[in-house]
């Protein structure tokens, strides 16, 4: 019944808007006959063009001031993070400059050269010099960006085995993450989803006969020792997922049927990150919002929201089904000692099986 | 052709061959009627697509709050008015599909290629009127199937418009991957057939049916754009068709093209040896050129409208053609920039970064040429002109962020976030939509013989322009904050709590912008009947379509087809009394044709 009423009300609103537009339309019809722009229209719209230019600048400033603390430009927590952030900053500066200049020219010309009866436009069809200028300038700028970008990309994606990275598997399934540590041998045991045996708690399909698999450790939280290079091997058991770790400037898809990889070195522990001024401010702001929301919730008789404390996160960033929006895993970056203590408490694969 | 002309020798006084209601309005083979059919169908699909976007924007702004609108429109998918997570994904998916393919490919290219190619090159009709009719009706059929898919029991396709398998291949992975996805694939297969028939027709028509004197270097830029768009379509759409067919095989006949090693809901599936990455390659081999299939016609329309309304030749005619060709070529070798983090070899990523950033060069040339065309012009601010200037503005804003996304190192961190959503909506969504609106305002007199109300046009443009920036500009910032797209709600991530207010702002702009499209719809439909009667050449334009009579005749020109003596951009040429010289006016004694 409410549904029907809503539709009826919607229809009425639409009819009302329609009628109002019609009245507007009819009111105009008498005063003016031509539907081609007159000098008056040109002037009005010329000024509006300048107004719109101002609007673009204002919205840019508002966005930068209000939402521009740009968490992806500072506070990176991985060794390669700052190079990405630098490149991002350079690109953004170029973009803003070009944007400000070209939008100005476009809208200013639209205002300056608004039509008037009797005026004649300049017959100016071609100029090779100008064309050459605005071909060559982008070529130079882009060449710089391409060289810088490719250098960065190759450095990030190339895995340097001589660093002796710690190998960790990220395992994705609808809708959660698991991490598998390679254990003392730093070699992951063979695995295939065909070997999954839920009854024996072999949930990642490890090859029980493989000696390398015996000391593997499967966890639901990702702990990383600070300063130690990590090489992630990604697997998925069902659909595409994407392992997105924004604070570390890291992302790689998890593809059923193949193993993908991404490596980085965490440089800031969770604790240190919580203590940075930026993060303290951000968390405080978020908690103010949450307190406000909680008041509304309590008034409705629901539970208040928990206080937020910063943690690194692994998010799923490839549409994977109904609960895609809640597929996450906590990442803890800690000192080597803390990490060693934590990993010791975890069960090795051979001990985790149910016989 | 000669038979055609003979026919018309007898029709001079407006007596056509007998046309019934059905042959005139339904199974018409006249390109002008087919253009209108495309436009109306595209408009209806556009209304559906925009309404969907408003619904999912409301969910993002006010997550999981009961909403009577949802209860009314979504039925069982919104128990107690709270939108279900599955239908959220379905709305996102179908919105993308409808807007990209049904509105901005068929609605834009289908309408204006059909209307303008024969009229602007001086042809009686398309090379094959019959294929043209078949093309429209296949498009209509695919639209109907897509709409029907919204009503299947387990829900419409919900795997994102990119329908990556395995999510799209396995009904147990997602409700929408059952009958909904089957219908989606069938609809798209038919759509592709329609698009190919149309494109072949456009290419053949442009190459063979140009009137005397209409050399390729005298073609209006609209035609160049439609022509190259059709060529890109012919090259890339069959690849999507193959991907769709292989996916159908995987889904229904047990093959393993895209699937391997899958364990889902407690059982191992038999698939082995396929790869979802293969699907991504096939999909984006169309998917990226598709961006230009959508955008180039809009740019072509803009070139024509900016030149006409600036009363100036388009600046750098040859450079414009060269940049269209460069964009077309590059567009087929950049698809991998959608796949930097797909697991493909990082070396390939380097190659695609290189080719992708190259596209910025011809794009920059186009933008600067538009701006220079305005310089020292005598700008007539008709609604079509406003939308064209708006297009250049959003094309720049949206295009610039492409140099971040095309850079593989930067893409790692903004891939699949709202930054991408903001980028492509501005550069292809809004820009192409503006191109479509510009085209409608400009050629409405040609289509319907009446004028659109300009005041309503101004209102429509200014509100739309402000709302478009209001929606998509802040979106860059939530993307740079790391918020992934396609999340039903962000409330499980306190990390993003400080972005909630941005999302409310965006949604309010979206609702206002969406509502004001009603002004356009009113203007469009009421002007068909009550609009001011149009003159033959209301915008004082040079191109051939304005030499045809206001009232449509089959075969376009009642008498002989005009011959062409000059390019399309002799505006404000010194030595002429008026500020435009139509293409069919012979050169005066001693007048030189510009060596453009």
Overview of the molecule:
- The complex is a heterodimer of chains A (355) and B (596).
- Chain A has 355 residues and is of the alpha+beta class.
- Chain A has a domain at 161-272 and 307-352: Immunoglobulin-like (Sandwich), CATH 2.60.40.
- In chain A, 46% of the residues lie in helices and 15% in strands.
- In chain A, strand 1 and strand 2 form a beta hairpin.
- Chain B has a single domain (31-255, 276-547), classed as Up-down Bundle (Cytochrome C Oxidase, Chain A), CATH 1.20.210.10.
- Chain B has helices at 2-9, 21-26, 31-61, 68-74, 85-121, 129-148, 179-208, 221-252, 276-310, 317-331, 346-358, 360-374, 383-400, 402-405, 408-414, 418-448, 454-480, 500-515, 517-530; strands at 263-264, 267-268.
- In chain B, strands 1-2 form a two-stranded antiparallel ribbon.
- Chain B is globular and about 85 Å long.
- At the A-B interface, helix 1, helix 2, helix 3, helix 4 and strand 7 of A face helix 4, helix 5, strand 1, helix 9 and helix 10 of B.
In the CATH hierarchy, the third-tier topology of the domain at 161-272 and 307-352 in chain A is known as Immunoglobulin-like
Rg estimate of chain A, integer Å: 29 Å
The biggest beta sheet of chain A reads: 5 strands, mixed
Number of H- or I-type helical stretches of chain B:
19
Q: What is the β-strand count of chain A?
A: 10
Helix content of chain B: 55-70%
Order of helices and strands of chain B: HHHHHHHHEEHHHHHHHHHHH
Mean pLDDT of chain B: 92
Number of domains of chain B: 1
Helix content of chain A: 40-55%
Number of helices of chain A: 8
Q: What is the ordering of alpha helices and beta strands of chain A?
A: HHHHEEEEEEEEHHEEHH
């Amino acid at each position: 019944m409410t549904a029907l009423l809503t539709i009826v009300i919607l229809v009425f609103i639409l009819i009302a808007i329609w009628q109002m537009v019609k009245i507007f339309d009819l009111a105009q019809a008498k005063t003016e006959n031509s539907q081609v722009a007159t000098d008056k229209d040109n002037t009005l719209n010329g000024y509006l063009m300048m107004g719109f230019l101002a609007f673009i600048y204002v919205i840019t400033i508002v966005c930068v001031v209000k939402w521009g603390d740009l968490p992806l430009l500072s506070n990176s927590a991985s060794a390669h993070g700052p190079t990405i952030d630098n490149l991002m900053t350079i690109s953004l500066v170029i973009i803003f400059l070009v944007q400000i200049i070209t939008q100005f020219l476009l809208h200013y010309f639209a205002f300056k050269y608004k039509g008037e009866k009797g005026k004649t436009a300049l017959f100016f069809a071609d100029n090779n010099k100008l064309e050459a200028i605005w071909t060559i300038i982008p070529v130079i700028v882009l060449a710089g960006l391409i060289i810088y970008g490719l250098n960065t990309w190759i450095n990030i994606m190339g895995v340097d085995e001589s660093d002796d990275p710690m190998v960790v598997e990220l395992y994705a399934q609808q809708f959660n993450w698991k991490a598998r540590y390679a254990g003392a041998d730093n070699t992951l045991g063979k695995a295939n989803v065909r070997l999954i045996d839920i009854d024996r708690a072999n949930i990642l399909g490890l090859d029980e006969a493989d000696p390398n698999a015996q000391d593997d450790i499967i966890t639901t939280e990702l702990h990383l020792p600070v300063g130690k290079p990590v090489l992630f091997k990604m697997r998925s058991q069902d659909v595409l997922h994407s392992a997105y770790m924004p604070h570390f400037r890291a992302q790689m898809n998890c593809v059923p049927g193949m193993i993908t990889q991404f490596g980085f070195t965490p440089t800031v522990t969770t604790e240190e990150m919580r203590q940075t001024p930026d993060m303290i401010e951000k968390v405080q702001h978020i908690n103010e919002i949450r307190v406000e929301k909680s008041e509304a919730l309590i008034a409705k008789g629901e539970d208040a929201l928990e206080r937020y404390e910063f943690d690194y996160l692994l998010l799923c960033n490839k549409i994977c089904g109904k609960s895609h929006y809640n597929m996450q895993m906590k990442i803890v970056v800690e000192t080597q000692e803390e990490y060693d203590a934590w990993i010791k408490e975890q069960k090795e694969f051979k001990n985790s099986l149910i016989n | 052709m000669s038979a055609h002309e003979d026919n018309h020798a007898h029709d001079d006084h407006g007596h056509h061959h007998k046309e019934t209601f059905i042959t005139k309005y339904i199974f018409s083979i006249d390109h002008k009627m087919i253009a209108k059919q495309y436009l109306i169908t595209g408009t209806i699909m556009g209304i559906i697509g925009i309404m969907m976007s408003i619904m999912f924007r409301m969910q993002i702004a006010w997550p999981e709050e009961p909403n009577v609108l949802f209860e009314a429109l979504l039925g069982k998918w919104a128990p107690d008015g709270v939108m279900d997570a599955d239908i959220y994904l379905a709305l996102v998916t179908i919105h993308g599909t409808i807007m990209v393919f049904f509105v901005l490919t068929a609605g834009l290219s289908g309408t204006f290629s059909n209307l303008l190619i024969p009229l602007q090159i001086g042809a009686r009709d398309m090379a094959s009127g019959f294929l043209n009719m078949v093309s429209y009706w296949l498009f209509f059929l695919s639209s109907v199937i897509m709409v029907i898919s919204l009503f299947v029991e387990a829900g419409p396709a919900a795997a994102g418009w990119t329908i990556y398998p395995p999510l799209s291949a396995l009904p147990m992975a997602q409700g929408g991957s059952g009958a909904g996805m089957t219908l989606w694939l069938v609809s798209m297969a038919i759509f592709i057939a329609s698009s190919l028939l149309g494109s072949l027709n456009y290419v053949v028509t442009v190459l063979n049916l140009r009137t005397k004197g209409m050399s390729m270097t005298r073609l209006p830029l609209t035609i160049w754009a439609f022509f190259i768009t059709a060529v890109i379509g012919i090259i890339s759409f069959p690849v999507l068709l193959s991907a769709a067919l292989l996916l159908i095989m995987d889904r229904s006949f047990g093959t393993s093209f895209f699937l391997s090693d899958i364990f889902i809901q407690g059982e191992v599936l038999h698939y082995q040896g396929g790869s979802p990455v293969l699907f991504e390659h096939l999909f984006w081999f169309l998917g990226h050129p598709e961006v230009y299939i959508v955008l180039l016609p809009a740019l072509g329309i803009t070139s024509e409208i900016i030149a006409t309304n600036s009363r100036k030749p388009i600046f750098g005619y040859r450079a414009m053609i060269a940049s269209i060709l460069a964009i077309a070529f590059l567009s087929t070798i950049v698809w991998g920039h959608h796949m930097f983090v797909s697991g493909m070899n990082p070396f390939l990523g380097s190659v695609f970064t290189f080719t992708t950033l190259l596209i910025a060069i011809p794009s920059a040339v186009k933008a600067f040429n538009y701006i220079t065309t305005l310089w020292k012009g005598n700008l007539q601010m008709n609604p079509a002109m406003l939308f064209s200037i708006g297009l250049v503005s959003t094309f720049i804003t949206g295009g610039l962020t492409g140099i971040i996304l095309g850079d593989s190192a930067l893409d790692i961190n903004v891939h699949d976030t709202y930054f991408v959503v903001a980028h492509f909506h501005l550069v292809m969504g809004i820009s192409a939509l503006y191109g479509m609106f510009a085209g409608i305002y400009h050629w409405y007199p040609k289509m319907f013989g009446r004028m659109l109300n300009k005041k309503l046009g101004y209102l429509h443009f200014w509100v739309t322009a402000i709302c478009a920036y209001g929606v998509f500009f802040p979106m860059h910032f939530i993307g740079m904050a790391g918020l992934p797209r396609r999340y039903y709600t962000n409330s499980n991530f306190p990390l993003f709590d400080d972005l909630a207010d941005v999302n409310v702002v965006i949604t309010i702009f979206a609702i206002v912008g969406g509502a004001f499209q009603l002004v356009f719809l009113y203007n469009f439909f009421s002007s068909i009947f009550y609009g001011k009667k149009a003159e033959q050449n209301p915008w004082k334009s040079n191109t051939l379509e304005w030499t045809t009579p206001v009232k449509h005749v089959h075969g376009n020109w009642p008498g002989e087809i005009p011959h062409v003596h000059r390019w399309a951009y002799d505006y404000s040429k010194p030595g002429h009394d008026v500020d435009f010289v139509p293409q069919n006016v012979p050169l005066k004694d001693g007048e030189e044709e510009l060596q453009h």
